[in-house]
Specification:
By secondary structure, the protein is mostly helical. Helix content is about 70%, strand content about 0%.
Length: about 575
């Protein structure tokens, strides 16, 4: 350990923090990375949120006032909207977590066929545009619905409202619960469950006394994450919610309809507080309550459940849900090739032609800005993961908390905060492409940070230490050693950032400008015009673009970041002698 003159009485953690801080101060590149990261987070994360808080608590003269807050919390209308939003979030969290648990348990515990197919279905809604499921509900159950009108003969069916919104949000967000729970269930030691079975407990008893308690932290975590996504959701309530107004829609209506930015800011705070509380509970309380014991001892392979009375019912449930999802996606794709849904089902490419005439420029803008923000966000995420994963310096906690804070901020709140923060000089960004890139970057960066941190914690410190001993600085070691090892995390971060950027709605609904319109805002406009065929054409094009760019990113990252092995000179000479 490095000898310091700080005196006795300091704990080991304090000494490590002091030593790590001194180490960073001696490495210019690492010091620059830390300082630049802090400045960026202060400017583009902390400052906008502080700005919206201050603005919501001031009056037109700039003086402190809680009049708007008092009016809203005493208004029966806004309290009803708040209650509706919380109720919707709770129902969706309960149903989506249940479905996610069924999928996770079936895939990790039961010997069912077509597991690869089920895994694909369980993650498909994450990588798709937000309007897909709402469009399919309208196509299948609306006034011209294929099921309601053409099959059942029901005319004028009103598909808008809470039931449809629940269905759409559950199908959209259950993959979040599935991904959380599949990791938890996979990490449970198989011998723990086998021991219960060997002592005479049946499958049902083993599940409720062993498996369920051990997976409870994952259940709570998945439910909280789904709850946050439901609160933040703007596109589904806007397109399928009807009169069931949520807080995100109310904020949008007040700002765009009544032009009351202060009242909208107060409502945005009401939306922000429960979302941030749920996120902090998940990150700093639930994640520390894991009851899964992972030892260093080798464990036996997990024995999959084979009992027919368990295996086939779970498989049938998963398959039925998978078929419904495929039907919904297939309906939207089919609807993009239909001349007039519900009236003329003849196939045509007119919807694509009209859609491109209406918004080709916006599609081009979305692709360009999404690619730029994905690359910047992926790189910045890896840098933040690198400077926080294995060092404990002064300022690290601020970077850790603020860098992932945007994940919990609802999109409408984020859009308002950026308007308030960057609508005047000296930092005038409103109406430019820069503000959209910045929003996409910091909004989607937390996933790259989490992936990078997890990977870095699994890399032995001796790898980088060997590079340093041979004379390499921290920048060279990061570029040539650490970054190639991070390519999978880097790929995950870029794919997620690109997907969320090109499909973003709520975060940019206030930030688009006539010069920089985005395809999602155009699709939202088509919903207002009831041009669902063109909307489905845009959505289908987005799905194809996502698949193409995921393949491109994967290929480029493998080419650029794959470890380069050099053939030793002795081997070359031996080959030449042959």
């Amino acid at each position: 350990m490095e000898v310091t003159s700080d005196g006795p009485g300091k704990s080991a953690a304090q000494m490590k923090r002091i030593n790590d801080t001194k180490t960073i101060l001696r490495q210019p590149i690492l010091l620059f990375a830390v300082i630049a990261t802090i400045i960026l987070l202060l400017l583009f994360v902390v400052y906008p949120l502080v700005k919206v808080f201050i603005f919501s608590l001031t009056d037109e003269t700039g003086g402190f006032s809680i009049e708007n807050l008092r009016n809203i919390v005493t208004s029966s209308r806004y309290l009803k909207v708040f209650g509706r939003t919380m109720l919707l979030g709770l129902i969706v969290a309960l149903l989506a977590t249940t479905i996610g648990y069924i999928f996770a348990y079936t895939i990790t515990r039961v010997n069912v066929p077509m597991k690869g197919f089920l895994r694909t279905i369980a993650t498909l809604p994450i990588l798709s545009p937000p309007f897909v499921l709402s469009l399919s509900v309208i196509f299948l159950f609306g006034k011209q619905g294929l099921i309601t009108k053409n099959l059942l003969g029901i005319k004028g069916n009103n598909v808008y409202g809470m039931p449809s919104l629940i269905v759409v949000q559950v199908m959209s967000f259950f993959p979040i619960a599935y991904l959380t729970l599949s990791g938890i269930l996979s990490s449970i030691d198989a011998s723990v469950e086998d021991a219960a079975c060997n002592m005479g407990a049946g499958r049902w008893k083993t599940f409720w006394s062993v498996t369920f308690p051990l997976s409870l932290p994952g259940i709570i975590s998945g439910a909280l994450l789904v709850f946050i996504q439901s609160l933040e959701d703007f596109s589904n309530p806007a397109t399928i919610g009807g009169e069931y107004t949520t807080l995100s829609i109310e904020v949008y209506n007040i700002i765009t309809g009544s032009y009351d930015m202060r009242k909208g800011s107060v409502l945005a705070i009401l939306l922000l507080v429960p979302a941030v509380i749920a996120y902090l509970l998940n990150k700093y309380w639930v994640n520390k309550k894991s009851f899964v014991t992972v030892t260093g001892k080798p464990t036996q392979a997990r024995k999959m459940i084979e009992e027919a009375h368990i295996k086939w019912p779970l498989f049938i449930i998963c398959m039925l849900f998978s078929v419904v999802i495929l039907m919904f996606y297939g309906t939207v794709i089919y609807g993009s090739f239909v001349r007039t849904w519900g009236i003329d089902f003849s196939l045509t490419l007119d919807q694509y032609r009209r859609a491109l005439q209406y918004g080709f420029g916006s599609l081009e803008n979305s692709i360009i800005l999404a690619v730029i923000s994905a690359i910047i966000g992926g790189m910045l995420g890896m840098i933040i993961a690198y400077i926080t994963a294995k060092r404990d310096y002064y300022g690290k906690k601020f970077i850790e908390v603020s860098s992932v804070l945007m994940f919990a901020v609802p999109g409408t709140v984020l859009g308002i905060s950026y308007i308030l923060a960057f609508n005047t000089k000296p930092i005038l960004l409103t109406g430019t492409a820069a503000i959209l890139v910045i929003v996409f970057t910091f909004r989607n960066m937390p996933v790259a940070i989490e992936s990078g941190t997890t990977t870095l914690l699994q890399i032995d410190n001796s790898i980088e230490e060997a590079s340093t001993i041979l004379g390499a600085n921290s920048g060279y070691s990061f570029r040539r050693i650490t970054l190639p090892l991070l390519r999978n995390a880097f790929f995950s971060g870029i794919v997620y950032s690109f997907t969320k950027a090109i499909t973003a709605v709520s975060a940019v609904i206030f930030l688009v400008s006539p010069r920089w319109t985005l395809v999602t805002s155009k699709i939202y406009g088509l919903f207002d015009l009831a041009k669902y065929g063109q909307a489905s054409a845009f959505v289908t094009m987005l799905i194809a673009i996502l698949l193409i760019f995921i393949g491109i990113f994967n290929t480029l990252i493998n080419l650029l970041l794959a470890p380069k092995s050099k053939v030793p000179q002795s081997v070359k000479k031996a080959e030449e002698n042959k």
